[in-house]
Each structure stands twice: as structure tokens, then as C-alpha cells.
Specification:
By secondary structure, this protein is an alpha/beta fold. The chain has 8 helices and 16 strands. It has one domain (3-100, 136-244): Metallo-beta-lactamase, Chain A (4-Layer Sandwich), CATH 3.60.15. It is 28% helix and 26% strand.
Length: 245
């Protein structure tokens, strides 16, 4: 028997309330966390996990969907406190998570800095500084598209590039659930592309949406927006149409 918990973390950023939704998969052998929040989020993560009667100390594995800071920001701290946790990521993302390659988000922010207005530059400098502060950590296991992992009733890795080259989603065939991470987000109750203006490859992101249509999905969970309420296939098809007209 396996369980699934949506770990909603509410916080304030720039005076606005925001929510991110990591996920925990649980069975008699494992408790697997998918993504771990911004830097300095360990306390918030712990509180959110505890609400589902799970302890961070019981986490056995951490699947990272990609190296954006809201997904890996607390990774190094989490690994320091709980060194037994096994870190898993796509083979293309591992060098960025481990600090062997410069964050693509940092490269993007630095390359666009000079084009910003004087009013925008202080915020950009703050963002760049935060990206530079992300502490790397070792990836213990790399995965690739359609790789099947035997934990928690069976996990299939779905490579969904676009937002980031090594971005992955996680498909749980037993419950027909897709943990989409940032492949899609929910805005005003509808599916959308996550920050299309900052998506590394928008055409690739659309192709990833088409790839998701290959799966039988009853439940779709987005990192930004939580559980989608509606016809998943129909909503994905509509989103694809919006970008391919």
C-alpha cells in the first residue's frame, strides 16, 4: 500500500502570499520527497510534513525535478541534517545541482541584467545574489526518461524539458497520478506554462505537454497550484492549442 501527500507550504514573498507544493510518496519501506523548497525552508518544510504525520527524519529519498532554487534551495541543509537521504535527479540536471556547472537560471539572469531599467536592477541584483548563494549537493542516483523505479507502488520518470533541459515529472501508474513539478502550473483554476518568458525552451515545453498526453492521468499535481481540478487531458489539449494556433 502506498500513500501520497501534498505538502503545501505557504509563505510571503515581496509582500505577497505564495504556496508551493512538494509531494511525499510513502509505503512500508520508503518515504520519498519530491522537491524541497527555497533556501532556509527547512522549518517550513518540517511543519508542513508534520501535518501529514510524517517526519523529515523518515524521508529515505529525495527526487529533484530540476535545479531552480525553489525546488533545490534547502537541499544541502536537508542532506547535512539527514545524510541518509538518497538524492535523485535527471542526468542532465545533476551537474547543476552538484555545482559542476553554473545554474542556467543564473546565466539567464546575468545575461539580461544590462537590458533592465534602473528601477529593475536592484531586484535583479538581489535575485542574482540569491541564486549565487545556493549551496550544491551530491546527486546519488541519476535517472532518464521512462526509467521505472520500484518504490511506492512503482514510479516512472517522465522527461519534460523546456522549463529546464533536465526537468522531470513523476508518473504513478497505480493511482494514475502525475506529479508535474513545473511542466505546468495552475493559474486561476486553469493550466498554464510556468513563466513562459523565462522558460529555457518554450517549443520544447510544448512538446513536453504533448508527451504528457501519452499517459493516463486521473490526478495532476503542480508545484505551483497543487491538485488540478478538472479534466486533465482536455486541459492539456487546450493549453497546447493556445500555443500552437
Amino acid at each position: 500500500m502506498s500513500g501520497l501527500h501534498l505538502i503545501e507550504i505557504e509563505f510571503e514573498h515581496n509582500g505577497q502570499k505564495q504556496t508551493i507544493t512538494p509531494v511525499i510518496l510513502e509505503d512500508e519501506n520508503d518515504a520519498i520527497l519530491i522537491d524541497c523548497g527555497y533556501p532556509n525552508f527547512i522549518h517550513l518544510l518540517e511543519e508542513a510534513v508534520n501535518r501529514h504525520h510524517v517526519n523529515l527524519s523518515s524521508i529515505t529519498k529525495l527526487i529533484l525535478t530540476h535545479h531552480d532554487m525553489d525546488h533545490i534551495g534547502s537541499l544541502a541543509t536537508l542532506k547535512r541534517i539527514y545524510p541518509h537521504i538518497k538524492i535523485i535527479a535527471h542526468e542532465l540536471e545533476a551537474p547543476y545541482i552538484e555545482g559542476k556547472k553554473k545554474s542556467l537560471r543564473l546565466v539567464q539572469a546575468e545575461s539580461t541584467f544590462n537590458a533592465l531599467s534602473d528601477e529593475e536592477k536592484p531586484y535583479a541584483e538581489q535575485f542574482i545574489s540569491l541564486l549565487q548563494s545556493i549551496e550544491p549537493a551530491t546527486v546519488d542516483q541519476t535517472v532518464s526518461h521512462k526509467e521505472r523505479l520500484p518504490w511506492c507502488g512503482g514510479i516512472e520518470i517522465v522527461h519534460t524539458p523546456g522549463h529546464m533541459p533536465g526537468h522531470i515529472s513523476v508518473y504513478l501508474s497505480v493511482s494514475k497520478t502525475l506529479v508535474a513539478a513545473d511542466a505546468v502550473v495552475i493559474e486561476n483554476g486553469e493550466l498554464a506554462i510556468a513563466n513562459p518568458q523565462y522558460t529555457m525552451d518554450l517549443e520544447e515545453a510544448i512538446r513536453s505537454l504533448k508527451r504528457l498526453l501519452e499517459y493516463d492521468i486521473d490526478q495532476l499535481i503542480c508545484y505551483h497550484g497543487g491538485l488540478f481540478r478538472g479534466d486533465v487531458k482536455q486541459a492539456l489539449q487546450q493549453l497546447i492549442r493556445n500555443y500552437t494556433r
